[in-house]
Amino acid sequence: MQEKHANARGVAHGGLLMTLADIALGYNTAYQEDPPASLVTASLTADFAGTAKLGDWIEAHVDVQKSGRRLAFANAYLTVDGERILRASAVFARSAAKPAG
Q1: Which residues contact residue 16 at a Cβ distance below 8 angstroms, ignoring those fewer than 6 apart?
Q2: Domains in the chain, please, with CATH?
Q3: Helix, strand, coil content of the chain in percent (nearest 5)
Q4: Residue 100: per-residue pLDDT
Q5: Helices (H), 1-101
Q6: Cα angle vertex 67, ends 66, 71, to 5°?
Q7: Do the beta carbons of residue 54 and residue 1 sit within 8 Å?
Q8: Which of 12, 7, 41, 11 is nearest to 24 (CA)?
Q9: Percentage of residues in the chain with pLDDT exceeding 70?
Q10: Cα distance between residue 15 and residue 75, in whole Å
């Protein structure tokens, strides 16, 4: 993590962690299919269980629970050195728009 991603206390800003979780959840869920599904985030919840400090490497571990005709569900953990710092859960809705790429 870089200084520009930190809050006033010098740890990763919660908004940064939520954004990372949303991106990891969305990409992992979309790319379960070929071609990738066009998804939009309908719901994103998170529980903060730790912190990331300057220089820490943050990893995302995603588990797609179900990808149905209209909705997809996934969970993720963000970790630093194997320690969970955030638990996130998301629901995605299928979009009529085609994904970029």
Answers
A1: 1, 5
A2: 3-94 (3.10.129.10)
A3: 20, 45, 35
A4: 61
A5: 14-30
A6: 105
A7: yes
A8: 41
A9: 95
A10: 18
